[in-house]
Amino acid sequence: MFELFENELNSLDTILDQVKKDSLGFLENLADRPTYVADQRIRPANLSEGGMGALGSLEAFKTHFDKLMVASPGPRYWGFVTGGATPAAIAGDWLTAVYDQNTQTTQGEGDVSAIVEQETIRLLRQLLYLPDDFNGGFVTGATMSNFTGLAVARQWAGERSGRDISREGVNGDMVVMAATPHSSVLKSLSMLGLGSSNMLRIETLDGREAMDLADFEKKLADNRDRPIVVNCSAGTVNTVDFDDIQAIVALKKRYDFWLHIDAAFGGFAACHPYYRHLLNGWEQADSITIDCHKWMNVPYDSAVSFVRKAHSRLQVSTFQNSNAPYLGDPSENFSYLNFLPENSRRFRALPAWFSLTAYGRNGFEWIVQNSIARAQELGNYIETSGHFELLAPVRLNVVCFRLKNEVEKMPEFLKKVNCRGKIFMTPTSLSGTSAVRAAFVNYRTGKDDIQVAISEMEEVLQVL
Ligand SMILES: *Cc1c(COP(=O)(O)O)cnc(C)c1O
Question: Which is an annotated Pfam family here (predicted)?
């Protein structure tokens, strides 16, 4: 063996020990690490001839990059919808790299990782109270999960017009509609050749992001002669609004449409008895998107795509890896290769399996409750402060607000708050006004963190 690799294997113990020490250094000091780094320049280096070995690279990483890494898995990183990484999830993610399986078939040919993936899906379904009516598999994120659901929907719509889209290409006959779709749904329409600007917008209820059911039914009736795909939001990113799933499902009896539910983070509300009703009816969906790297606190990249088993044939015709005859009949030999966009896949289920088995129903119920409590605390402050105003009631785990006066100073306010490095929030726009959103997803976030945020915001107000 090449000497460098021989040395590496001989010092594996030292390498992993050092990685463990450095990891602890990062994780134990997360609350003090800045959530923002102003100077993000890195010095490009040339590829070396000899290589410095893993320990050398670790040193170089610490010297050059570590100080630039923000505390995104920390308790006060409230931008986007950023989850944390629980100890069990980190353990699972580490072992995913160590075991390095290519997770494909459940037929016992090769490794068993696909069987463990299906077991993980079963546990996740139990957590979320979803029936055994769905094929489930891991993808990189909710974007790919939305893509997967909509790709099978496209195949379904094609079949309605006598067209096998995966073989013959799109013909633009179908209609896709939604009220407040996530940007990734539009991106998926672009990737699918359906065109992001062809989304038919359903009107929203007054002051809400949820669809107006009267307008929805009208659009269903108007488009009766075309295959219809409906994207339903179960938790919008700005105000965590939910479309009325039960009412939408009821309309499925009278109108023929594919129902895709984007429940990227909102789906986890199902594991809390008090919020479960928001997802009532979702077991009737044709496809569902769930992100694990958000409210489940599994490291990036982890999401699940659920597609109704009744659509297995369509799912296989969408994703069949048809140039590989050695795979056999895809409907008999279940392989993720023929059910999801990617071919080679890492054992992405393992961190989720570790989390589900390590923390159980109570653990996830607690995370949901804790995030909602924190959002309510910040929301209460915003409502009573005099300086700020809520742009929507705090429905679940996101607080969307702005300055009460001097609204034009919003970008400057947020920039100043973020630059101080104690909390991180992201800008958004809601009904045409610029706003700030704070998303509570991380299990580490406590009451004290809300107090830190309040002091930070008040200090920035002094210098605005
Ligand atoms: C985050 C999110 C997405 C996109 O998810 P990624 O994991 O970033 O790909 C889609 N839909 C909703 C509702 C989301 O919150």
Answer: Pyridoxal_deC
Asked whether residue 328 carries a pLDDT value surpassing 70, the answer given is no
Is the CB–ligand 1 distance for residue 182 below 6 Å? yes
How far apart CA 300 and CA 392 sit, in angstroms, is 29
Pair of tokens at residue 349: 């289920």
Pick from 72, 82, 182 the residue to mutate for probing ligand 1's pocket: most ligand atoms within 8 Å of its CB: 182
Nearest protein CA to atom 14 of ligand 1, as residue: 264
In the structure, what pLDDT confidence band is assigned to residue 324 with cuts at 50, 70 and 90?
low
232: pLDDT strictly greater than 80: yes
Please work out whether the CB of residue 303 comes within 6 Å of at least one atom of ligand 1.
yes
pTM of the model: 0.96
User: Would you state the pLDDT for residue 443?
Assistant: 98
Q: Which long-range contacts (CB under 8 A, 24 or more apart) does 447-453 make?
A: 447/374, 447/377, 449/75, 449/76, 449/374, 449/423, 450/374, 450/377, 450/378, 450/381, 452/76, 452/422, 452/423, 453/76, 453/378, 453/422, 453/423
268 contacts: CB under 8 Å, gap ≥ 6: 128, 290, 294, 295, 296, 364, 367, 368
Q: Is the CB of 149 under 6 A from ligand 1?
A: no
pLDDT per residue over 15-43, tens digit each?
A: 999 999 999 999 999 999 999 999 889 98
What is the helix (H) or strand (E) element at residue 250, kind and residue range? Answer: helix 245-251
Residue 148 has pLDDT above 70, yes or no: yes
